[in-house]
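Let us work through a complete example step by step.
Step 1: write down the sequence.
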Amino acid sequence: IKYIPYPIVVGFTSGIALTIFSTQLKDFFGLTVDNVPGDFIEKWIVYVRHFHTIDLWSTLVGVLSVVIIALTPRFSKKVPGSLVAIVVMTVGVWLLKTYAGVTSVATIGDRFSISAALPDASVPSMTWDTIKGLISPAVTIAILGAIESLLSATVADGVTGDKHNSNQELIGQGIANVFSPIFGGIPATGAIARTMTNINNGGRTPVAGIVHAVVLLLIFLFLMPLAQYIPMACLAGVLVVVSYNMSGWRTFKELLRNPKSDVGVLLVTFFLTVIFDLTIAIEVGLLLACLMFMKRMAESTQISVITDDLDPNKESDIELHEEHLTIPDRVEVYEINGPYFFGIANKFEEEMIRIGDRPKVRIIRMRKVPFVDSTGIHNLTNLCRMSQREGIIIVLSGVNPRVHETLEKASFYELLGKDNICSNINEALAKAREIVKA
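Step 2: predict the structure and record it as C-alpha cells.
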C-alpha cells in the first residue's frame, strides 16, 4: 500500500465520498423509489426522474441533521455532532408521528425487521470440494480486504498524522474474519466511511474501534427496539457530512495544479471509482502510475558520449571536464546516468547508431547505474555480440557491486571477458590504449 501514489489515494477517496453521497439522496429527500440502481449514472437518472416525489418532512430532517452536526462542535468538542443529531431527530420525528400525524418520514423500523437475538454459533462443514471451490474467491476477497483496510488506514494516517502498523491491522482483520463465520458473519474490512466517521468524532486509537463494537453489541442486545425509531433521513444526513469530510476537495483542487500525468491518474482513479468500483479504479490507477513512472525514469536516464572537446560552461559537461579525461583515437566512451532498464534499453543502441563511427574500443561507463534489469542485460549482450562481430571490444568501467553481481549471475562476463571489466575510467582508458596499440 505504501507504494500507491498519492493521486490514486486522493482519487479513490474522493470517488468513494461522492459514491456515499449519491447513495444517501433517496433517504435524505425521502424520494419514493422502489429500486435504486447500483450504477452511479443510472442512480442519478432515477433520482432526477423521481425528484417530484420529494418529501419535505424528510428533507427537513436531513437538513437539520447536517446543521446540528455542523454546529455542535461550536458548543462542545467532546460530544459527537452525529450522536446529537440522531437523538434530537429521533425524538423530533417520534413527536411528529405521535402528535402531529406526520408519517411520511421513514425510520429504520419501517425498512428493516429488527431482532435482538444473537445468532447461533455453528461451525460450517468443510469438504475438499468446498475448499477447492472457495480457495480462489477466498484469496481474492482476502487481497481486496487487505487493500481496502490498509487504504483506509492510509487515509486515516493522512487525517490524524499518525502511522498505522500494517501487520497488526492485517493480523487482527484475519483473526476476526476466521471466527466471524461461526456466528453467521461475512468477511469484514476496515472501511473508509466508518473510519472517517470514527475520526471525525474523536477516535484516534484502537480503543475507539473496541468501544464502537461494544456499544453496537449493547445496542443490539438492549436498545434494538429504540433503534427502529431512528429516521433514515437523519442517518442520510450523517453520511452526507461524512462524505463531505472525506472528499478532501481542497486537496483534490491542489492536485489539479500538479503535472498533467499526476492529474490524469487522479481523474481516472476518481471517475473509475465513481462509475465502476474501487477495485477497477486501483488497478487502472496503479497501471497508469507505473507507466508514468517508467516514462519519467526513462527520460531521466541519460546516455552521453564523452569526448575531448567538452564545454566547461555547459552544466552537463562540468564534472567530466574537471576530470581532465583524454580519449585516445579509435576509442569511444559512453556514460550511462540512471537505471539501465527496459524503458531505455534501446537508447544506447540508438546513440551508437547516431555516432556512426567504428572504433576499436567502446568504453561503457556505468558508475551511475544503480541497477540493471533483464532487458538491460539482454540489450548489453546484443551490443557486445554486435560489437564483437565488427571487431570492436567492449570495456565496462565503474560497475557498482549490485550491478556487477547481476551481470555476473547472468553470465554476461563470460561473453565480455573479465579482463574487460575496469574499476574506474582511468583504468579503462589505459586498457583501451593497450588494445589500440596492439
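Step 3: interpret the result. Residues 128-160 form the longest helix (33 residues).
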